[in-house]
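Thread: Modeling a multi-component assembly for a lab meeting

Hi all, long-time lurker, first post. My supervisor asked me to bring a structural picture of a complex we are working on to next week's group meeting, and I have zero experience with this. I have the sequence lines for every component (872 residues in total). Could someone generate the structure of the whole assembly? Inputs are pasted exactly as I received them:
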Amino acid sequence: MGEKRTVYSICGMCSVRCPIMVEVEGDRVRWISGNPHDAGMGTALCAKGIAGRALLDDTERPLSPLIRDGERGSGKWRTVSWDEALDYVAEKLKAIIDQYGGRAVLLSDRGGPFGEYRKAFLKAIGSPNYCNHDVTCAVSVNHAALSLFGFGRKTLNYDYKNAKHIVLYGRNILESIKIKTTKAVINALDRGAKLTYIDPRYSVTASKATRWWRIRPGTDYALNLALMHIIIKEGLYDKAFVSRWVHGFEHLAKFVEQYTPEWAEEETGIPAQEMYLFCREIAQDAPHVIFHPGWMRARYKQAFWESRTTYLLNVLLGAIEVPGGLFFMKGPKDAGKKGLNSIGENLPKVEEKRADGAGWKYPYINKGPGLLHRAFEAIKTGDPYPIKAYIVHRHDPLTGLPDPEAQVEIFKNLDLLVVVDVNWSETAKYADVILPECTYLERSDLIANQKGLKPGFRIRTAAIEPRYDTKPGWWIYIQLAKRLGKGEHFPYETIEDLWEKQLEGTGITVAQIQEKGFITLTDKPIWYDRMNDLPFKTESGKIEIINKKWEDAGIPCLKPYESPEKPPKGKFRLLFGRCAWQTHGMWMNNPALHPYLKENVLWINKKVAEEMGLKDGDKVIVSNGGYKKEMRIFATELIHPEAVFMLHGFGRTVPQQTRAYNRGVADQRLEVGLLDVYDPAGGANALCECFIEVKPAK
Amino acid sequence: MAKYYIYHDPTRCIGCLACEISCMDWKELPYGEANCRIFRFGPEAVFGEPDLTFMYTSCFHCEKPLCVEACPSGALAKREGDGIVVFREDLCIGCRACITACPWGIPQWNENAGKIHKCDYCADRIDQGLKPACVTRCPVDALKFVPVEEASQLKRMRWLRDTFGRQVAPAAKY
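Re: Modeling a multi-component assembly
Sure thing. I ran the full set together rather than chain by chain. Output:
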C-alpha cells in the first residue's frame, strides 16, 4: 500500500487510445477504468485496456536495451546500458548518413497523436522517409477522401449517437472496438436506429444488424454502383445539397446508369429487390445516415473506389455536417483559440524526394504517411536511392504487412535495423538493436490535439515510474538527435520542457489539462453552415467527382468495375479480422488475455466443408507458397462459400513469448507475394487478394 | 436495505469479455478464472435465421444459499441487510463442498490459493458506494447493478421493446 492517487491518462493497448482513469497506490497501479469525465466514455474499458495491469507484470518483454549477439534473427542478445545502446545506434546512423545521406534512414510507426518528435527527428537528420502503418489500414480510405474533398479521412467523423441508419462494409464496429463509438452505436440501435451490415462473414456486428448482406468477397464496389444507380434514378438524393456542393454530378449519373441492381445481384449475391427496398428505406432516414467509408480497408485492389463510392453515398443523401451523419472535426482555430506549438526548433525543410515515390513518382499519393511497401521496394532495389537504416517504432511490419519471409529477405539490405517497442514483436526478433519503451502507464507523452465538435487538448501522464530499464519514446529520439549533433533542434531534457514549449502562448497550463486528462476549448459544439460554408480543399472548392490529380496520372476516378477472380477448386479467398480482446497480434502473449485466445480457427462454409468430407471441429492443413500449418475448422453456413476466415496475429515466432509461441496460424505468412499487390489509386496493400489451399489433415 | 441483482441485457451485450477480465483483474484471480462468465449461443442458423446471443452468468446470491449450508468452516455466509453471499478466503479450508452443493456451478477452484472463489458483488466496492467491477467497466452498459425488484421490470421492458421495436415505459409513467 501507499499514497493513493488518481491519474487521468490515455490508454495504450491499441491505436484507439481511449481516455482512462488510473488509480495508483504507492508505486502500484490498482485499477484502470474509462475516464468518467468523458461522458461518451464513462468508466467503460475493454478487455485489452483492463489487461494493461497484466502488461506491467509481464516479464516476457524486452526489459532493458538489447544489442544483437549473433546472426540477425538468431535470438542471441546482449543486455546493455542505455548509453551503450544509444551510442551504438548513433554511431551506425552517423556512418550511414555520412555515406548515403540522411535520406537513407527510414522510420515507420503506427501513426497517432504523440509522434511529432519522431517526424522532427527525421527532419533534423534530413530524411523525408517517414511512413506509418497505413498501407495495411486506411490509406486507400484517406486517398478516397482526398480525391473527393481535398482533405483526408480524419477531417470527417461520424455522429453515430444521432444516426437513424448506419451502413457498415465489414467495419466490424462491435468487435474491432473503439469504446465511445461502440457504445454510441449500441445506444443508437437501442433507440431504434437501423444497421445494415455488409460482410461475407457473420460477425458480432452482423448479429446486431437489422440487415446482414452476406456479400460475395471483393464486390463492395459493384454494390455501391448499383445503390447509386437506384438513388439517382429514383431521385432519392438530396438535390439541394448535391447541386450546391457536388462538382461533376452529371458524370456520376451517367457512369452509374450501366450498373443496374439486377447486374449487381449476379455480382454480389444480394437480391436486387433488397437493394431497392434498402435505398427507399434509407432515403427516408436521410440525412441522418452514415455509410462508413472503411477503417481497415487494405483488402482489395479496388479499395480506393469502394471507399470513394461509399463516401459518395453519404454525399448523395446529404449526410455531411449534420447531426446523425458525418461532421467536420474542428480544431482550436475554429474555437478562436491558439493551437499547440511544434516542438522542433528551426528544423530545416527536407527537400529530398521520398524513397517510396509518394508526391513525385505517385503525385496523387499523400506524402504524410507514405507507402511503406514501396519504401521496402526501395530498400530492395536501391532505387531511387539506397535505404540503409530502418527504425521501427512500436510497429510490427512482419505481422502487419504481408509475406514476412519476403520482408526478412529485403531487410538483409539494411546496415541497421532498430526496433523501439514495449513488447516483443516479430520484427524485433530480426533487429540489430532493441530500445525498449516503457509502457503507457509508465510514460508521459506530448500533449495531443483533440479535434471534434468541441476541440481541445488531451494528455497522457505517467501513472507510475518505469519498473524496468525502459524509457519513453520522446526521450530516446532526443538522446539520439543529441548524439548525432542535432541537439540544437531539441533544447529539452524533460517532458515538462516539451509541454511548456507546446503550450506557450495558449493560455492553458498542464495542470488544467491533467485535472481531467483533457480540456475543451469551447462549451458549445461547433457546426459549420452546411449550405454556405463547408471548407472543401479541392480546386473547385466542392466535392469533386472527377479529380484531376488522379486523372492526370491515368487513374480514372470513375473506374469501370472489374469482377474479382473466383478461387479455383480447393482454394479459398483468405479473409482475416479481429476479436474484441486482441489487437492485431500485439497482446497474444499478455498473461491476462492469452487464456482467452490461444489459437485461431478457420471459418469455412458448412456445405463446402461437407463436400470436402469435413465437419465442424475437424483439422485441416492450410497452405500457400512455403507456409503450411494445421488448424481446426469452424464449419458454418454464415460465411460465403468462396471465403475462409481467421483471426489475425497468430503463429508467433519469438521464443521469448512462451505463451503465444508457435500457437495458431499466421495469416500474413499465407499472404505470399502480396507485398507488391496493392490498390494503385489509394496505395493500400490488397491483403485479401489471396487464395489459399485448404485440405483435410490426415 | 436493498437486495441486489446484476441484470444482463443480451440485446446490448457484444460478448467482449471485459466483464470477465474486469473481475479477474480486480479480484486478482488466476488468469482466465473470473467469478462471472460470459457464454455464447452461436453463431448459428436457427430455423434458417442467423443468430448469436451472449449470456452472462454469476452468483445469484440465493435466499437459501446451498453453498453456505454446505460450507463447514463459515467461509461462506449470507450478509445481513443486503443479503450478499460473501466469501472469506482466510476461513476457507479448500474442501470444495460448495462446488458440489451449488446448483449453478458458481464456486470455482482457485489454484493459486488452494481455495475456492466466488462472486460477492465486489462487496468491498459496494460498501464504498461503487458498483461491481464487471458492471463498472462494461463497455456498452449491458450490465446493470440494480435492486432486485428493478431487474424484473428491466427484463419485461427489454422483451417488449425487442418484440415491438419501439420505446416502452410503465403505463403509470408520464
